[in-house]
Amino acid sequence: MGKKRQRGRLVDGVLLLDKPKGVTSNAALQAVKRLLDARKGGHTGSLDPLATGLLPLCFGEATKISAYLLNADKRYLTEIKLGVKTTTGDAEGEVVETRPVPPLDAATVESVLTRFRGEIEQIPPMHSAIKYKGEPLYKLAHQGKEVAREPRRVTIHALELISLDRDRLLLDIRCSKGTYVRTLAEDIGEALGCGGHVSELRRTEVGALRVDDAVTLENLRQIWKAGTPQDLDRYLLPMGEALRDWPGVQLKGDAAYYLRMGQPVLVPRAPTEGWVRLYEEDRFLGVGEIIDDGRVAPRRLVKVA
Predict the structure, then answer these.
(1) CB neighbours of residue 274 within 10 Å
(2) Which residues are catalytically annotated?
């Protein structure tokens, strides 16, 4: 019996999507995958349906670097509605408590925000994908169950008050991976004495990638209707560009050969620590890490034409 023929084109690259509100990350991925007629694709960490903004989508060989984008710092523009708590910590949940909002000024809010900058602990929300005994927490939450969750350490690199309008705060948040903005909003609301929830959320950055460079789903659909899936390829970033804030290391000759074989190699003038992008004559090979003896060790290699 012959091998089943795979459907779709071999497409390699990263597409920066400006995800619309009301659409799940997976639904957005599948829509773009169909438009591109791509054989293989994945996203780099879910955005809630409520949220809009930057959702990097990886196709083909680029799916091998998706984990590194998932681990990157994120930036959000977040509106918090004070005085109202919901079951989910955002506007999609049911209201469970309302409290009066005390008179607030920028100085009062700033004094509270100071407590949440730097390394903090968060208790993950029940409405999250974290698993408890093999079951996602959100499934237990939908069954009306609540279980104890271990606090997690995250880092809030920047937390800036953009505007204050009575019972609404607009914040610019830059945070480490694993940060729950909904939990942060709830905790800030509690610290202000009235509770709160996320009413609007927009992701503006993932690592070095910016939403200003993203394309909307509607724009992609219009181009597809007027042409072919190949017309959308211009929106695909080269794999290495998706990690543009990492230093690049150029390899030649034997060094490139042995690294492709999975062996660490010594590269003159390479960085002395951290993660790097690997190239051979400007062809992206994958990602590597500088190990203790200064050699460059391959961590995830991609196929190159």
Answers:
(1) 10
(2) 48
